[in-house]
Amino acid sequence: MRRMLELGLVAAGENVLSTTLRKEETLADLKEDGTIVWRRARKIVDPAPVKDEEGGEETAVDAADVETLVFNTVSEFRLAVVREKNPERKVDNGWDWVKYAGVKLGDIKRRLPPEPKPEPKPRAKREPKPTPTPKKRKKITDDERGYHAAVKRIVVPAREKRESRNASKNINIGESFDGQGDLQMVTCEAYNKRRTQPFKVTVTSGAELVMDFHAHLCSDEIIGFLGGVYDDDAKTLRITRALPARQLVQEHAGVEVELDPESVPAIVETLTAKGEGIVGWYHSHPVFATQPSIRDIQNQFEYQKMFARSDGESQTIAPFVGAIVGPYDVRNDSQKSDVRMFHCVDFGGEPEPYELKVEHAGCEDVSPDVLRELKGLADRFRTTPHAGVGDSEPLAAIDLNATPVSLTEHWRDGTTRLEKFEHSLCARLPKSWQDETKTAYVGGIVKYLKTAWGVAAA
Ligand SMILES: [Zn+2]
C-alpha cells in the first residue's frame, strides 16, 4: 500500500476505500502512511442500523458509539469486515475485495513496477563492477543527454521492456497486460521554446463532450478514436469528433483496455462519409492520473508509424494524437476531468511521450450528431433489472464488456459522481454559450441518462 501511495497510484483520503460484503458496503480511510482506518459502529442493543453516511460531514452516530480500528494491511481490514458476519474466518485476501475509488486494489497493484530484486550475492573471484553510468544510449549529444535525463521514467528492467515491445507488434491499441511493468505510467515531457511542438492541435466542444461523457459512464477503461483532418498549410491537426469504440472483455478492465476490432469499420465509414479520417485515439484512466503507461506509449508509437506521411518538404510527420481522460481521479484540480493529449518523439533511443498543447477550436455550436452520440452511449451502457427478481437486485449492464459506474456514489467533497459528471460536461460547451444554455443542454442529457439507467431523481 505504501508503494502505491509513493508512486501516486492512490491518494490518502477519507472513505476512499470500500469493500462490499453481502451487498453491504463498508468504507474506510487511507492514511498517508499506508494504514487503513475503519470507524466501525459499535454493536448496540437497538438493532436500528447505524451507518456512516457516505462522505457526510456529520454522522448520526454518537462519537462514543464508534470505534476507530487501524489496520496495517488491506487483508487485515477485509478480514475484520468479514468477521463481523463470520467470526470463524481466519484469512481473507483484501486485494481482491477492497476497492479504491471503485477499482479493485489488486488491479491497481498491477500498475506497480516490479519490486527491486535483492542484491545478488557477489560471486567469488569477481570484482564488483562500478555502478553503470545512468544512461547508456547510443551517440547522444549533451543536449539530448540533458533531455533524456529529464524524462522521469520509472526504471523497468531492460528485458521486460524488450518483451513488451515485441508484444506491441500485433498493433492492438489499448493496454493488454502481458508483462509486468507495462502499466507503469511515464510522465510526459513538455515542449518549450527550444523544443517546439511540431504541429498545432485544435479540438471541438463536440469531440470533448463525447470523450468525457463516454469516460464518465464506466468504472472500466473505455476506448475510441478521434476523427478530423490535418491541415498541411496551417500545420494544424483539427480534431472534430470522438468516435466511441467497443472494448473487449478484460479480466482487469479497471486498468487495461483493448479495442474490439469489429467496431472499427463502422467508425472508418462514418469518417470517410464526412471527408475526414482517424487522427488519434482516446481511452480513459478511470481513477488514475492521465499520464500514459508504457503500453500506451508503445501503442501510440505504432499508430504514428502507421499514419506517418510526408509534409511535402521532405520531412516526415505523423499527425496522430493519443488522448487520456481521467473522469474520477480524486486528485483532479477541478470537477472538469483532466484530458491529456500526447504523442511520441523518438530521438534514436526509444519513443518518449510529449504532452501536446491543445487549443479550443472556438466553435459556437455543437452538432446535433453529438447529442445523438451521447444518447446512444447512455443506451449502450444502460442497466436493466434482472428478469424475475426484485427491485433490490443490482442492475445488469446491457454492454457486458464494461461495468457502468454507480452515478449516485460519492466522488469527492460531498459531491456524487453524477454531480461531478454534469459539471465536467458543462465545462466542455462553447465558451460563447450563456450559463443557462449550458445548464439546459447538460440537464437534458443527464435527464436522458437517469431515465435510461433507472437512476432515481435526487
Ligand atoms: Zn492507459
TrEMBL record:
Pfam families: JAB. Residues 201-348 form the MPN domain. InterPro entries: JAMM/MPN+_dom, JAMM_MPN+_peptidase_M67A, MPN. SUPFAM superfamilies: JAB1/MPN domain (SSF102712). Residues 108-143 are annotated as: Disordered. PROSITE patterns: MPN. GO terms for molecular function: metallopeptidase activity. SMART domains: JAB_MPN. Residues 108-129 have a biased composition (Basic and acidic residues). This is MPN domain-containing protein. It comes from Ostreococcus lucimarinus (strain CCE9901). The lineage of its organism: Eukaryota, Viridiplantae, Chlorophyta, Mamiellophyceae, Mamiellales.
